[in-house]
Amino acid sequence: MKFVIKKIAGLIITLLIVSILAFLAFEVIPGDPARTILGTEATEGKVQALREEMGLNRPLPQRYGQWLGEFIMGDMGTSYSYQIPVRDMIGDKIPITITLTVIAFFFIILFSIPVSVLCVRYENKLVDRLFLIFNQITMSVPPFFVGIVFTVLFGLLFRLFTPGGYVPYTESVSGFLGYLILPGAAIALPKAAMSTKMLRNSLLAEMRQDYVRTAMSRGNGFWRVLMRHVLRNGILPVITFLGWAIADVITNSIVIEQVFGIPGLGRTLISSISKRDYPVVEAVIVLIAVVILVINVIVDLLYRKLDKRIEV
Amino acid sequence: MLRVENLSLHFEDKGKIQEAVRGISFHMQESEILGIVGESGSGKTMTALTIAGLTKEHEVLDEGRILLDQTDLLALSPKEMRDIQGRNISMIFQEPMTALNPTMKIGKQVEEALVLHTRLSKEERRKKAIRALEDVELERPDLLYGKYPHELSGGMRQRVMIAAAIVCRPRLLIADEPTTALDVGTQESILRLLKKLNKKYNMGILFISHNLRVVNELCSRVLVMKDGVILEEGPTEQIFEDPRTQYTKDLIAAIPGRTKSSAFYKLLKAKAGE
After folding, report:
1. Distance from C-alpha of B146 to C-alpha of B141, rounded to nearest angstrom
2. Contact present, B162 and B193 (Cβ < 8 Å)
3. Closest chain A CA to residue B173
4. Which band of pLDDT confidence, cut at 50, 70 and 90, is reported for residue B264?
5. CA-based nearest residue to B137, from B196, B91, B187, B177
6. pLDDT (tens digit per residue) in A201-252
7. Residues β-bridged to residue B85
8. A219 and B101 in contact by Cβ < 8 A?
9. How far is B261 from chain A (nearest CA, A)?
10. CATH numeric code, B2-88+170-272
């Protein structure tokens, strides 16, 4: 219980800091939403009048305070450029990005556990070495490039999917999921390679522990020892890594959405930044921070569940 | 029950073939407690691990025969050997702190041999595991069943190790320095426990140690090993009263209880016996 309270307190403080930083960032970077709305032809007087109307001339703490108050009450504000509530703008995009992230995460786990188990079984044999090379290469390739390669390979060469042929989930769930497979794999690949390498090494280190010999002395075979004893211990450091990796996976989702033409949060975020549409950007950044933090809490809980020695 | 014939063990170390054990032979009677003493590098642990079938994975070359009744353990396939491990032959180790799986409940570790070697139901396994925990004189075995190793002291963990080893009532328990990592008081109680289990279940114990004092307390017969060969062999009393080699004499002289500065040790022993 104490743990949960501590975690929630930490979560709230982190969110406050993230939202302040996002606010400050717009003070620093050049650009003016009023000017963007009115266009370059508008007179200085008109721009000033609009700034006054939008409340942009008030001091920063006051603006932040008002935004925060409204945000806590569930009002994310109104988009400057579209004049519609931010909630309506991003509400239907959140599931898209989250689905993409979850698919990518699923692929990371789906790849790294079986492959590293295989590499441990055939340590230093051909399979192990081949995956070592494969991982070393994919680890260093950025997801957007993998995305482009996938598009060329599967979209243009093998014609397994239509590049840019995104299917909204309101239209067909299976079509939607089907379209997200390749972008999900593109995001997952470098991280999957890293976690495979980590898990393989962690499992090999565990295989040399004393308790493995004890398990063998009871008549356990190699596979049983690996699956029943070693995997649970060996996966612990990798879970920590995956907790860190989630931020990267979300960031990469935003980039990959551009490559594959997926209308998720990423697109909204990037176009809103260029239009200086503060309310939208603030909302998206805080939402992403919430997702990352919540996943980190889940990782901590999972870690404690797997290893009872941990008392955080 | 157990007969080791002309056993030689080699392993490769940095491209060189090392000879760990050179053609040793010995036997063990049913429910006998046999001690093997020797310093590190004498080949005693390698011998123990080979009998327990735990050297196969480590590319140790073996020659000779290890007969459990009529079966030559060295001629068995790994799968056939696994059938014997934990059922007929069990082993306990030196480091109770690391020999248990840190993320597996005590109960699950104790009953694992039952999962592997019997068709008992979950409830029957639990009962047997709890009885094994009682056998090793641990209090509240029903509570211990759901605990993790880090919640237990070193002595308690070694008892859990023993419980897991005897849960299938093996005929031979190989104990490789099981008391070395424990404090003196705990050592004594573990030795007493092994003796009790030996009587209660007619379980033979092959006790490996570098400590002649401990061997003297527990074993009826002793082998003294050095550099991969057996220097001498005989009933414990005879080895102590009338050692034939200088090496054995030196070992006996090194026992702290026999030197004059043993007042502290006696005090500890008296305390442990209370």
Report:
1. 9
2. yes
3. A217
4. low
5. B196
6. 999 999 999 999 999 999 999 999 999 999 999 999 999 898 888 888 988 9
7. B89
8. no
9. 36
10. 3.40.50.300
Q: Distances in Å between the alpha carbon of A114 and those of A131, A137, A263, B52, B103?
A: 12, 19, 33, 31, 21
Per residue, the 3-state secondary structure of chain A, as one string, reads: CHHHHHHHHHHHHHHHHHHHHHHHHHHHCCCCHHHHHHCCCCCHHHHHHHHHHHCCCCCHHHHHHHHHHHHHCCCCCECCCCCCEHHHHHHCCHHHHHHHHHHHHHHHHHHHHHHHHHHHHCCCCHHHHHHHHHHHHHHCCCHHHHHHHHHHHHHHHCCCCCCCCCCCCCCCHHHHHHHHHHHHHHHHHHHHHHHHHHHHHHHHHHHCCHHHHHHHHCCCCHHHHHHHHHHHHHCHHHHHHHHHHHHHHHHHHHHHHHHHCCCCHHHHHHHHHHCCCHHHHHHHHHHHHHHHHHHHHHHHHHHHHHCCCCCC
Select the residue of B52, B78, B150 nearest A217 (Cβ to Cβ): B52
Q: At which residue do the structure tokens 């023993």 appear?
A: B162
* CA–CA separation, A103 and A90 (whole Å): 20
- For residue A276, the one-letter residue type is R
pTM (2 d.p.): 0.84
Tell me whether B160 touches chain A (CB under 8 Å): no
Give the closest of B99, B103, B165 to A307, CB-based. Answer: B103
> Helix, strand or coil for residue B176?
strand
Among residues 151-210 of chain A, which lie with CB inside 8 Å of chain B?
209-210
Topology of the domain comprising A94-263: MetI-like fold (1.10.3720)
Interchain CB contacts (distance < 8 Å): A and B? 73
Name the one residue in this structure whose structure tokens are 């393989």. Answer: A200
Dump pLDDT digits (tens) for A30-46.
Answer: 778 888 788 878 888 88
Rounded to whole angstroms, the maximal C-alpha distance in chain B is: 57
- Using the Cβ of A220 and the Cβ atoms of chain B, whether some distance falls under 8 Å is answered with yes
Q: Do residues B144 and B138 lie in contact, with contact meaning Cβ atoms separated by under 8 Å? A: yes
For chain B, what are the domain ranges?
2-88+170-272
For B54, phi then psi, to 5°, come to -105, 5
Interface test with A, best of B49, B76, B112 (most A CBs within 10 A): B112
Task: Using a CB–CB cutoff of 8 Å, tell me whether B112 touches chain A.
Answer: yes
The length of chain B is 274
Chain B: residue whose CA lies nearest to A221: B82
Candidate from B54, B148, B161 with C-beta closest to A308: B148
pLDDT of residue B263: 56
CA distance B74 to A39: 88
Spans of all domains in chain A: 94-263
How far is CA B69 from each of CA A183, B2, B32, B186, rounded to the nearest angstrom? Answer: 63, 6, 14, 34
Angle of CA points B236, B237, B241, to nearest 5°: 120
Interface confidence: ipTM more than 0.85? yes
What kind and span of H or E run contains B19?
Answer: strand B16-28
**Residues B153-176 as b or e (16 or more Cβ within 10 Å = b):** eebbbbbbbbbbbbbbebbbbbbb
